[in-house]
Amino acid sequence: MRLVKSSLLAMAVVGAISTVGIAVAGQVTLTLQPGALANVVPAVDVDAQARETAKSLVLVEYTLRNENISREESGQGIVVSKDGVVLISGGLIPEALPKEYVKDLKIRLPGKNFTTVPAKLLGRTQNRLFAFVKAEKPIEAEVFKVPATGAPALGETVFSAGILGKGSGYSPYAGVTTNKAVLELTYTVVVTQTGGLTRANSPVFDRQTGNLVGITLSGFGGARQVEGEDEQGTTYLPYDEVKDVFQDVPTQPFETRRPWAAVDGMTGLEEEVRELFHITQPAAVAVGSVIPNEAADKAGLKPKDIILTVDGKPFSNSPVPNLAVMHFSRALEKHKPGDEIVLGIVRDRGETKLDVKLKLGTVPKGPGEMQHVFSPRIGIATRDLVFGDAYARKLPQDTKGVVVALVKNGAPASLGQTPLHANHLIIKVDDQPVEDQKQFLELMKKEEEKADLKEMVFVVINPDGQTGVCRIDLSK
């Protein structure tokens, strides 16, 4: 093996680079297979590009804290506006995480003696792959300037630029690798040689031209990447999938809702099923169930309907059933709530063909969007119901009550023969019906003010839809 500075190298042959770039004594070095130098041609100075990009990279940090845990979280951000707006991975602050649990959100500036600036979450992109935070006062960091852009190609040599974690002094570093596969999943995703790229949310550049070709992911779904030099991503989203986050930068808090067809249990069709229904195109999806009184139901879609097209066009050319479902989801996500689409379907074992006009609804709010309030006497945090709470239990959507979001370790609610558990749906307290969070908190306040209170009895509905009783001993 030979070690050579990246500023002197470029790879003309696929697979010439065998490992990632690493920061050594201020230089990015590449490990080469024997004989690789014969294929070296002029290319981009990786060192210089990584250091230049690092001027626009920051750390976004916060404390995740509730009654059971307290831990520091951080991830890499890209400064995208002179107003101090920073682009982060959508998984860094998960949508399911209640805002009450996100404490001390701040931006750390590695280039300015690691100074921190308070920040606030502005909102999330419609696909939830990214989010924006904004500094609450001006920050001294350069706005990332998008260079010429390009599309990824198989075998292309690419590199990404990132900043290391606290233990390594937030130093800039680069990872060089080659594209191994371009996958058409819900989104187009480029898979590279294992261990080649830097941390999630890093710009990825073409090794020969310097063109921006994408942004790294920590996984196919864009899930959050744990901080650490060894936690390196192997995938990235092509620029065409992410260009909107550089072109439509918000300056004020915003809320973006996702479109919803209100169907469940979608499945792709295997080849033999397509042949049975005389479907000649390579991809189709079958409807599992239709949620009553929502978009698909109102449009007349039925369980077992087979969807062939969206707005007159096939939504996938993949015969792989799971990919067909992903591509159908992607076709819907290109729209907004309220848009009208036309689904080409067949039903009755292929005997009936028709177009169904469907006005897309809005994805219901999730648990993380509900206010979580802690009741200290018994030790539980509760929230109002969301659509999924009743749907999962096969209950009417007008079901009343509150959901237990958290039970504090060691609190009265966690002890005894019949403790409360997270995801219990409380419908009664001491034989008094529970309507919603507001009424529940008022009820709890009255009960907790009783000096001689020995026990509280909760009637709950379990996640499986069965009713139970929890007796909480308050005498100890």
Features:
single chain; mainly beta; Thrombin, subunit H; disordered N terminus; 7 helices; flat; Pdz3 Domain; seven-stranded antiparallel beta sheet; six-stranded antiparallel β-barrel; 32 strands; 476 residues; 13% helix; 3 domains
pLDDT < 50 stretches? 1-40, 220-232
Helix content: 10-25%
Per the principal axes of the C-alpha atoms, what is the gross shape? flat
The chain-level mean pLDDT equals: 87
**Biggest sheet features:** 7 strands, antiparallel
- Tell me the fraction of residues in β-strands, as a range: 35-45%
Distance between the termini: 68 Å
Rg, alpha carbons? 26 Å
Instruction: Please give the CATH architecture of the largest domain.
Output: Beta Barrel
Domain module tally: 3
* Secondary structure: number of strands: 32
Topology-level CATH name of the largest domain? Thrombin, subunit H
- Counting DSSP H or I runs of 4 or more residues, the number of helices is 7
Give the C-level CATH assignment of the largest domain: Mainly Beta
Secondary-structure-based class equals mainly beta
Description:
With 476 residues, the chain is mainly β. It folds into three domains: 1-255, Thrombin, subunit H (Beta Barrel), CATH 2.40.10.120; 259-362, Pdz3 Domain (Roll); 367-473, Pdz3 Domain, CATH 2.30.42. The protein is 13% helix and 36% strand. The chain has seven helices and 32 strands. Strands 26, 27, 28, 29, 30, 31 and 32 form a seven-stranded antiparallel sheet that branches.
